[in-house]
Fold this protein.
Amino acid sequence: MKFIDEVLIKVFAGDGGNGIASFRREKFEPMGGPSGGDGGRGGSVFFQADENLNTLIDFRFKKEHRAQRGENGRSSDQYGAAGEDLVLKVPVGTVIKDSFSENIFGDLTQHGQKILVAKGGKGGLGNIHFKSSINRAPRQFTHGEPGEEFELFLELKLIADIGLVGLPNAGKSSFIRKVSAATPKVADYPFTTLQPNLGVVKFDFDKSFVIADVPGLIEGASDGVGLGDKFLKHLTRTRLLLHLIDGLSNISGSDPIDDAQTIIGELKKYEETLFNKPRWIVLNKIDLNYDADALKKQIKVKIGWNDKIFVISSLTGQGCKELIKEIAYFLENEDQ
């Protein structure tokens, strides 16, 4: 299924039904009083988060969504039926904004969370409401109020505990396959990953955390180069970022330290809050026997890196268990 994380749609709440003017006409009472009922309330538009959805593709082809109009009032003091509410299901992590004012209606971060976006119009009043001591046979009634309508921008931001960032072919997808049950595509060419992937990592009998793998960054991503920074927004909800770096990238002409600086620079350009998140460096491909200790020292000296550095192999799993334990310990301490 195609991954769609941004859509523009219009929603229309139902109009209220009209009130009516009518009079009682019964046996032995041919000129009875007013009996016009009120119109029904228009249906409202709600959004509800559903953990079974993972894309906004359902909104890609249907751009307009309308709740039901309220029924008109009836004679014999009968009110019109209310219009049926419209509940639109979206993935957990969807942000709903007014496309013009950019006012945020809601951020649906939990399964089942439900918000009202467009309120249905009130029903009109029947002529029974206009009876008075000087007007025993009123013919006035009111029309139903129009329902609210909005043009909305829906933006999906995935919810994960850990975010993986790195250049193309650093081994992010291989790592997430190794430590979780996720099966992203893995191949020996750049931009194999074209959309975010989520993997659930279990580290205890009843404990787990979620890792998000996004397409690789390259220099200039914040300016739209490559796949740009389009997918970095999916890391804004994470609690820890892992910089996955190919420890052998100098063989292919680039330098691991330059790679690390590229990632750091692009994060800083994109958003300060993302840059300020806790970040660890993870050197990959240790199975190919490079001098990891020397590389760690160079990173600390040349970049001024004072946080943790791990060495792993996404292929053999070397060092992965130790990294997962450290992540679990970090998350548990953060929860306290």
